[in-house]
Amino acid sequence: MAKILVIDDNLDICNLLKRFLSKKGHDVETTMSGESGLDLVRKNKFDLILCDFKLRDIEGPDILQEVKKISPETKLAIITGYSDVRVAVEVMKKGAFDYVVKPLIPDEILSLIDRAMETPSQPVYDQAEKVSDEKNQKKAISPNVKSSGEYIWGKGTASKNLLKEISLVAPTNFSVIIYGESGAGKENIARTIHNLSERKDMPFVAIDCGALTRDLAGSELWGHEKGAFTGALSSKEGQFELADGGTIFLDEIGNLSYDIQVGLLRLVQEKKLRRIGGVKDKSIDVRIIVASNENLKEAVAKGKFREDLFYRFNEFTINVPPLRKRGKDIMLFAEHFLQLANIELKKEVKGFSHEVAELFVKYEWPGNLREMRNIIRRSLLLSDGEEIQITAIPHEIVHAHKFDFREDTNSLYVTENSSNETVAADDPVDLKLIAAQAEAEAIKKALLENQYNKTKAAKQLGIDRKTLFNKIKLHNIA
């Protein structure tokens, strides 16, 4: 039995929690003001305080600071109407044990109380930092380049902030929404959260919701019994069953159909699932991490995503910065992918020319890390020297400065021509024409660098001599 104090200026919440928790055997007191709550803490010893984030007289974080002074051993959890990274970071940095989101779910409150009674008086934030420090000491997460294929962490501010958020949320059991552009490494972040959690020895299951068809999504997620539908020749475990006890990662969650979202909501609320064609429910314990490259709150406003499901998932949010905003870490990632490609292709290229490095830092990387890895693999395949040269980089990357993808249109516009003369911004340009111009420039440069030795130029360009002759003729190169 726990002695609990509820501080909330909503009388209904106070009465609801008092009745519910008292029936569960806990000793509960309630108050509707921060000042009276602090007076109760001065007079009594509480195991746990459930305090609203915004009160009329004192805000939750300020009450937290006073409680720490009056009764350091008392744990405090914040009640908030809307959870986000800022709230979580703020209250946990100040020593909060945890936080819960309105509307309150009975099982979550009971779970919170159980954890509070079992856990030593140490803030979740401090635990997360400790876990992070231990992992760093063991080099499980390291900013150093590795050739093992695991995700690496940069040294820049954006990378450090990202790792800090991951370390903060990983030891908890929060559901997490990861926002980020395609190819930014959302699955790797989800896997890292799993590996830093108490579930690390249990399964991690990743699902691309965009690849699930409407007809088969239910079977894939919940499983099915034999004969449930045409083609169901045997029973099948769903992905949630396979992830039981561990973590499931739902990538591009916004692609799920409405009926699947309904089933997912039931699973999240009741922590039970029923296979398609089944008659029995099965209890399931899975931490859910979802990812999206679109804002789910905007998807809710458009009617594409269920609002209640969004708030169930939105216990913690991580925004993954795109590669173009990672500064000096761009080349750290490039070196990492080069090592991986060297192993795969059995080569020993040591690095990148200064020209390539400069290009990589300036390039927009619309496909982020996934695009970088593919480009480096392709460029390494065309390289024979100690460094990857600019001639091995795809023309569309080298001459990307010529293109302008405007946010308000799907049209492609050229910003400058091969002579660096300004071109009218409103004149649409044929993509094949731009590619041909880029190819001609690359051939001219290769010929110049090799003193017009066509055999050497062809080798540098990764083509045979006959193909080079044909292209010289095609582009009318003197």
Automatic annotation (TrEMBL):
<dbReference type="Pfam" id="PF25601">
    <property type="entry name" value="AAA_lid_14"/>
</dbReference>
<keyword id="KW-0804">Transcription</keyword>
<keyword id="KW-0067">ATP-binding</keyword>
<dbReference type="InterPro" id="IPR025943">
    <property type="entry name" value="Sigma_54_int_dom_ATP-bd_2"/>
</dbReference>
<dbReference type="GO" id="GO:0005524">
    <property type="term" value="F:ATP binding"/>
</dbReference>
<dbReference type="InterPro" id="IPR001789">
    <property type="entry name" value="Sig_transdc_resp-reg_receiver"/>
</dbReference>
<dbReference type="InterPro" id="IPR002197">
    <property type="entry name" value="HTH_Fis"/>
</dbReference>
<dbReference type="Pfam" id="PF02954">
    <property type="entry name" value="HTH_8"/>
</dbReference>
<feature type="domain" description="Sigma-54 factor interaction">
    <location>
        <begin position="152"/>
        <end position="381"/>
    </location>
</feature>
<feature type="domain" description="Response regulatory">
    <location>
        <begin position="3"/>
        <end position="117"/>
    </location>
</feature>
<dbReference type="Pfam" id="PF00072">
    <property type="entry name" value="Response_reg"/>
</dbReference>
<keyword id="KW-0805">Transcription regulation</keyword>
<dbReference type="GO" id="GO:0043565">
    <property type="term" value="F:sequence-specific DNA binding"/>
</dbReference>
<dbReference type="GO" id="GO:0006355">
    <property type="term" value="P:regulation of DNA-templated transcription"/>
</dbReference>
<dbReference type="Pfam" id="PF00158">
    <property type="entry name" value="Sigma54_activat"/>
</dbReference>
<dbReference type="InterPro" id="IPR003593">
    <property type="entry name" value="AAA+_ATPase"/>
</dbReference>
<keyword id="KW-0547">Nucleotide-binding</keyword>
<feature type="modified residue" description="4-aspartylphosphate">
    <location>
        <position position="52"/>
    </location>
</feature>
<dbReference type="InterPro" id="IPR058031">
    <property type="entry name" value="AAA_lid_NorR"/>
</dbReference>
<dbReference type="InterPro" id="IPR002078">
    <property type="entry name" value="Sigma_54_int"/>
</dbReference>
<dbReference type="GO" id="GO:0000160">
    <property type="term" value="P:phosphorelay signal transduction system"/>
</dbReference>
<keyword id="KW-0597">Phosphoprotein</keyword>
<protein>
    <submittedName>
        <fullName>Sigma-54-dependent Fis family transcriptional regulator</fullName>
    </submittedName>
</protein>
<dbReference type="InterPro" id="IPR025662">
    <property type="entry name" value="Sigma_54_int_dom_ATP-bd_1"/>
</dbReference>
